[in-house]
Design a protein that fits this description.
The complex is a heterodimer of chains A (110) and B (124). Chain A has 110 residues and is mainly β. Helix content of chain A is 0%, strand content 45%. In chain B, 3% of the residues lie in helices and 48% in strands. Chain B has 1 helix and 11 strands; from the N terminus they run E-E-E-E-E-E-E-E-E-H-E-E. The longest helix of chain B has 4 residues, at 104-107. Chain B is globular. The N and C termini of chain B lie far apart (39 Å). The chains are: A mainly beta (110), B mainly beta (124). Chain A binds chain B through residues 2, 32-35, 37, 39, 43-47, 50-51, 56, 88, 90-92, 96-104, and chain B through 37, 39, 46-49, 52, 60-63, 96, 98, 104-105, 107-112, 114-117.
């Protein structure tokens, strides 16, 4: 059971937008930066969003992140079939003095 | 080009100690402000952060496994080593190392580079 709560699944059709939520607490998301990773089975996870809403170079602007209070979200607009993957939020937890990942959300592009 | 490669045994027996090595290429671990973490993923489950070592030699561990984990680095070999004692079948999974250009305790889990992972099975 992760300290960061994500919906286990999400879905959308090509071209649609989908938002994945990540709920935490004052000791983690409420105080620290949130990161988002995309993970395709059998490959290395890929950094999508850093410091809540910043995109590394090479990540399409279809991916955006936001944070409000103790929750964060990842929005993927203009869904494409290659976006089908697992998505994880992550942050530092001050009370645990540890990095924590969410439980992951499996995105299906219908 | 920065690359990370994990290496270690594919199979360990229960109660044995696991030793994993992360070899970093294209970037010097002796640089200031560089850290390496180990993250694992049991089959069908989520990513789980395990440990981090920063350029200052500051170390952080997941609380639940702190007594079993040791992270260390050899900058001359550009390697970060993770040992996990008293292995159990629930420790089966893919183990990743990942590199950050910041102290995880300050900036959070900002991993710019990841290895491909190494699968470890724990079975008698």
């Amino acid at each position: 059971q992760s300290v960061l709560t994500q919906p286990p699944s999400a879905s959308g059709t090509p071209g649609q937008s989908v938002t994945i939520s990540c709920s935490g607490s004052s000791s983690n998301i409420g105080t620290n930066y949130v990161y988002w990773y995309q993970h395709l089975p059998g490959t290395a996870p890929k950094l999508l969003i850093y410091r809540n809403n910043q995109r590394p170079s090479g990540v399409p602007d279809r991916f955006s992140g936001s944070k409000s209070g103790t929750s964060a979200s990842l929005t993927i607009s203009g869904l494409r079939s290659e976006d089908e993957a697992d998505y994880y939020c992550a942050t530092w937890d001050d009370s645990m003095s540890a990095a924590v990942f969410g439980g992951g959300t499996k995105l299906t592009v219908l | 080009q920065v690359t990370l490669k994990e290496s270690g045994p594919v199979l360990v027996k229960p109660t044995e100690t696991l030793t994993l090595t992360c070899t970093v290429s294209g970037f010097s671990l002796s640089n200031a402000r560089v850290g390496v973490s180990w993250i694992r993923q049991p089959p069908g489950k989520a990513l789980e952060w395990l440990a981090h070592i920063f350029s200052t030699d500051e170390k952080s561990y997941i609380t639940s496994l702190k007594t079993r984990l040791t992270i260390s680095k050899d900058t001359s070999k550009s390697q970060v080593v993770l040992t996990m004692t008293n292995m159990d079948p629930v420790d089966t999974g893919t183990y990743y190392c990942a590199l950050s250009h910041s102290n995880i305790a300050v900036a959070g889990p900002h991993f710019d580079y990841w290895g491909q992972g190494t699968l470890v099975a724990v079975s008698s």
